[in-house]
Design goal:
The protein is built from 1 helix and 9 strands, in the order E-E-E-E-E-H-E-E-E-E. It starts with 13 loop residues before the first strand and ends with a strand. With 148 residues, it is mainly β. The model has no long low-confidence stretch (mean pLDDT 84). It has a single domain, classed as Pnp Oxidase, Chain A (Roll), CATH 2.30.110. A hairpin with a 6-residue loop joins strand 6 and strand 7. Strands 1, 2, 5, 6, 7, 8 and 9 form a 7-stranded antiparallel β-sheet that branches. The chain has a two-stranded antiparallel sheet with strand order 3-4.
């Protein structure tokens, strides 16, 4: 195939999280970048040979971010605001997960999320005998995820 350009996979060395109004620092892991459309099956009367598959609602999975413990309380404060809001409108934020190349600077991919809010904050278990770094986990419910 003359003239066809080759598209190799990008090596992802780093990623960063951009979050409206919060300098969240860096994260070690990011999971849950996923959207899924439900399938609604419909059996038409008189047609016993097949089932029609129709589109149901599309939903985005929760995004789970893990980072080493940093004493900056910005993310915890946002989670605190959500807990304290009661029945009032909650502060939702937009953001992006940005994949960076091996040099740590070149953007190789971007996934934007809308109307996020923290549904879970967790501190890893403390085990003085393990020597492992403590980690914070933040889970965000998101309205939508789009490839940027």
């Amino acid at each position: 195939m003359a003239g066809a350009s080759r598209k190799d996979h990008h090596a992802i060395g780093f990623f960063k999280v951009e979050l409206d109004g919060i300098d969240s620092g860096s994260f070690r892991k990011c999971g849950g970048l996923k959207t899924e459309t439900e399938v609604f099956e419909y059996q038409e009367g008189g047609d016993n040979e097949a089932t029609h598959k129709l589109m149901g609602p599309t939903k985005a999975s929760n995004i789970v971010l893990t980072k080493g413990y940093v004493s900056d309380p910005a993310l915890f404060k946002w989670r605190d605001e959500i807990q304290a809001s009661g029945t009032k409108a909650i502060k939702r934020r937009n953001g992006s997960i940005v994949a960076l190349g091996l040099d740590g600077k070149t953007e190789v991919g971007r996934w934007n999320f809308q109307k996020a809010w923290p549904v879970r904050w967790e501190m890893s278990e403390f085990d003085a005998s393990s020597g492992e770094a403590a980690c914070e986990i933040l889970e965000l419910a998101v309205h939508a995820v789009t490839k940027g």
